[in-house]
């Protein structure tokens, strides 16, 4: 990577683009709605059950001009979801400014492990034990999506719920490989604690990206 490209990446004017695709949102509050996904490379949170581990090494994904990402996105949808990897490893100011200038609704899916940058219409926070969110992301989260892999994760979920704002929507979602085991546990927990909602990875049931 040349020094010029590194400088553009540092400014957020280029971003390591892993993939981009138009599909149906599968999880959380906006499930079932059409959206254009921008998946950025780079993540050092390291969840052992991550289903996109190929996103972790940013160097595997070509630095792409932000304006080109925006030009492609606007062909498909006015709702954009930026995901990763961990998108907040990069400065999101240029990307969100350009998307908003095109009149788009801009959402982010993040672990919150890095300081928030960019301007967002919806923040989906999915905190991870290995690298907890910054307070700034807790403060603005619209939805909290906690992944339930085992029974210990219910305690973690409650700890995270105590840190977000009072209007944040709370979700528990089974880790895909543990769905058969953990869905009954989650259903029982939510019925006893109705401030929570159940989230499922419906796109996997629909067999879409």
Automatic annotation (TrEMBL):
Superkingdom classification of source: Bacteria
Gene3D superfamilies: Aldolase class I
Stored HAMAP family: QueE
The protein, known as: 7-carboxy-7-deazaguanine synthase
EC nos: 4.3.99.3
Binding site for S-adenosyl-L-methionine: 49-51, 85, 126-128
Reaction(s) the record says it catalyses: 6-carboxy-5,6,7,8-tetrahydropterin + H(+) = 7-carboxy-7-carbaguanine + NH4(+)
Enzymatic class: lyase
One Pfam family matching this protein: Radical_SAM
Radical SAM core domain mapped to chain residues: 30-209
Protein's UniProt keywords contain Metal-binding: yes
Protein's pathway: Purine metabolism; 7-cyano-7-deazaguanine biosynthesis
PROSITE patterns tied to this protein: RADICAL_SAM (PS51918)
Keyword Signal: no
Co-factor note (free text): Binds 1 [4Fe-4S] cluster. The cluster is coordinated with 3 cysteines and an exchangeable S-adenosyl-L-methionine. Binds 1 S-adenosyl-L-methionine per subunit.
Gene Ontology biological process terms, A to Z: tRNA queuosine(34) biosynthetic process
Protein's organism: Bizionia paragorgiae
Protein role: Catalyzes the complex heterocyclic radical-mediated conversion of 6-carboxy-5,6,7,8-tetrahydropterin (CPH4) to 7-carboxy-7-deazaguanine (CDG), a step common to the biosynthetic pathways of all 7-deazapurine-containing compounds.
């Amino acid at each position: 990577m040349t020094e010029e490209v590194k400088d553009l990446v540092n400014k957020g004017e280029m971003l390591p683009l892993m993939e981009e695709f138009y599909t149906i949102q599968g999880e959380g509050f906006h499930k079932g709605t059409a959206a254009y996904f921008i998946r950025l490379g780079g993540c050092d949170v390291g969840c052992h059950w991550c289903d996109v581990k190929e996103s972790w090494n940013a160097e595997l994904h070509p630095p792409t001009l932000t304006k080109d990402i925006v030009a492609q996105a606007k062909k498909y949808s006015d709702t954009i979801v930026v995901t990763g990897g961990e998108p907040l490893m990069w400065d999101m100011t240029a990307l969100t400014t350009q998307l908003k200038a095109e009149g788009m609704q801009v959402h982010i899916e993040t672990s919150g492990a890095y300081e928030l940058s960019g301007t967002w219409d919806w923040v989906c926070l999915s905190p991870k034990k290995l690298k907890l969110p910054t307070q700034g992301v807790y403060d603005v989260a619209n939805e909290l999506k906690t992944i339930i892999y085992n029974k210990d994760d219910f305690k973690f979920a409650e700890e995270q719920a105590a840190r977000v704002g009072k209007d944040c929507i709370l979700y528990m979602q089974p880790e895909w490989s543990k769905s058969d085991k953990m869905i009954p546990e989650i259903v029982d927990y939510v019925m006893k604690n109705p401030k929570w909602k159940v989230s499922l990875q419906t796109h996997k049931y629909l067999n879409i990206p």
